[in-house]
Amino acid sequence: MQPNTHSIAYSIFLILLLYGVGYTDSKETSASGPVTTIILIRHAERDNFFNITEQGGERAKALVKAVNDFEITAIYSPDLGRNVDTVRPLANHLKIDITLTPRITKSSIDRIINQINTTHAGEVVLLVGNGSGNLRSLHHRLGGQGDGPDQYGELFIYTITDRGPVKVVKSRYGP
Asked: pLDDT tens digits for 141-159?
């Protein structure tokens, strides 16, 4: 007699539940509410004319591989060529539009963060900025300590909940 496929699936579900493994969708939540993840990077290498270089193009391609498993639902970028060119390969790969923001300044940071928190609560968002101190301000506004991502290829991942400290993971990507 062959086992019923529904009973096999139910048994597997019970085993996974027993060992603390369960299904989650891309909108992660905690006991205190949605868990939002923001990935913050600096644009790729640029030349003196503010265009990304060949190495910057390679770094932009490497970004796709570096964040592929994050289930990114939105990409935010200032309307500057070097920033957009850094995230364009990722946006094309994910088939999502880039949300253009005004140039990131200390006065626009709260508006951008509030837009992300309101529109993308419980999701994963990538935000690209510039190394002029704006990334440091963003880093601190998101709950980070010390310096933010100011070097090419630095990747900071912020896990934000309604309660408790923000968790920040620092990483690198690209050549």
From this structure: 999 998 889 899 999 999 9
